[in-house]
Amino acid sequence: MAGTGVFEEIIDGDVYKYYSEGEWKNSSSGKTVAIINPTTRKPHFKVQACSQEEVNKIMESAKVAQKAWARTPLWKRAELLHKAAALLKEHRAPIAECLVKEIAKPAKDAVIEVVRSGDLISYTAEEGVRLLGEGKFLVSDSFPGNERTKYCLTSKIPLGVVLAIPPFNYPVNLAVSKIGPALIAGNSLVLKPPTQGAVAALHMVHCFHLAGFPKGLISCVTGKGSEIGDFLTMHPGVNCISFTGGDTGVAISKKAGMIPLQMELGGKDACIVLEDADLDLVAANIVKGGFSYSGQRCTAVKVVLVMESIADALVEKVNAKIAKLTVGPPEDDSDITPVVTESSANFIEGLVMDAKERGATFCQEYKREGNLIWPLLLDHVRPDMRIAWEEPFGPVLPVIRINAIEEGIHHCNASNFGLQGCVFTRDIVKAIMISDAMETGTVQINSAPARGPDHFPFQGLKDSGIGSQGITNSINMMTKIKSTVINLPSPSYTMG
């Protein structure tokens, strides 16, 4: 597949190379990392296990390349990003095929991810030119006690080297959401892709290579987190870290030192359903929000908090829709595909068994084959069950029945997470008041949580992250304000 045509140079035999100083290279370590296909549970790809020495070289060339790139005109940076976006869309088929094999993403969704990533890069190029092409002009007599003797010019300058670490579930899209803003802002970029998703990321990086970016500006280092993870995140050459993922983010933020961090971590996104809600709309959004890509999304619906009076009717509608979901391999475009690893499947099973022991109602039979778990709605879940609080990252959804809106808000806010939430009601006043009370980065009214469109602000509170994303916010976060003050002679001196 990928060893043909345009992607020939990124693979050597059956091992994918890493990308450094504008070249595709084999690691001197002689070691590789196997990528397990979640569907077959057998090794499917191999990538280089890079050494710390190679990371040092990458950081050195990134630093040098960044200095020249910062002096490159904005329109030129944008031009190259547009080129990369076009190449990414043109080669969407082989990249999508990697996503199917590496992370069991349904074929149709895999293509959508690659195309969306191209759109994101193009928008970033345009937004960056507008945003970074503007400075600010301040005069000193706008502050008490000052004459107009000082002019202050402020502009946005790059931070330096940005380390980008995307997660397995969107290894292309969540990589470009970091790469695009970093590059348009004048930074260089070091990408450490997730192991599951590394090959799709290497293909994506090759599109940037083909677009003609300067050597050393973009690097992609693969390897074991245990060997190069801490070494990368604590490297003195890194000036900013943008990370999307789970618990690892907390560890990174404790070790990273005094640099800007952009972290998007887990979520336990609550769906609060009021008595006046359109139950057909709610059911459709619960199934889409809770089960698409087998629930392996930080913005998936993770807990349904529904008013007791309508709970039976809603559960019945949701179950009717779950019954229509197709379960199987991603190649067949199944709705529910295998979860990413065996350990992930085991964790989900642990949550299900805990709920069973504590008396939750199983709306479907619990069924698992390897990494493939059939969709399951758990009714009558109580706060003493692990699944009420923990994030399964799988096709398993708990329903908690509530007797007052306050109960739903309380459950949402008692969580350590605060990424997104949603509320379903026809009463806009109630919707706004509940949104106001929910301690989450985003609240969706009458829709399931979602990260996009990619230019919307996206952020989490509490254990769900630090900083804000979305194209504009990321560009701002990956720059610093630089002030230049011009001191004029005092008025008495000039008039005299």
TrEMBL record:
Gene3D superfamilies: Aldehyde Dehydrogenase, Chain A, domain 1 (3.40.605.10), Aldehyde Dehydrogenase, Chain A, domain 2 (3.40.309.10). It comes from Colocasia esculenta. Important as a means of generating NADPH for biosynthetic reactions. It catalyses: D-glyceraldehyde 3-phosphate + NADP(+) + H2O = (2R)-3-phosphoglycerate + NADPH + 2 H(+). PANTHER family: ALDEHYDE DEHYDROGENASE. Belongs to the aldehyde dehydrogenase family. Keywords: Cytoplasm, NADP, Oxidoreductase. GO terms for cellular component: cytoplasm. CDD domains: ALDH_F11_NP-GAPDH. Its main location: cytoplasm. Its EC number is 1.2.1.9. The active site is at residue 264. Residues 24-483 form the Aldehyde dehydrogenase domain. GO terms for molecular function: glyceraldehyde-3-phosphate dehydrogenase (NADP+) (non-phosphorylating) activity; lactaldehyde dehydrogenase (NAD+) activity. It comes from the Eukaryota. InterPro entries: Ald_DH/histidinol_DH (IPR016161), Ald_DH_C (IPR016163), Ald_DH_CS_CYS (IPR016160), Ald_DH_CS_GLU (IPR029510), Ald_DH_N (IPR016162), Aldehyde_DH_dom (IPR015590), ALDH-related_metabolic_enz (IPR051020). It is found in: Cytoplasm. It is an enzyme of class 1 (oxidoreductase). This is NADP-dependent glyceraldehyde-3-phosphate dehydrogenase.
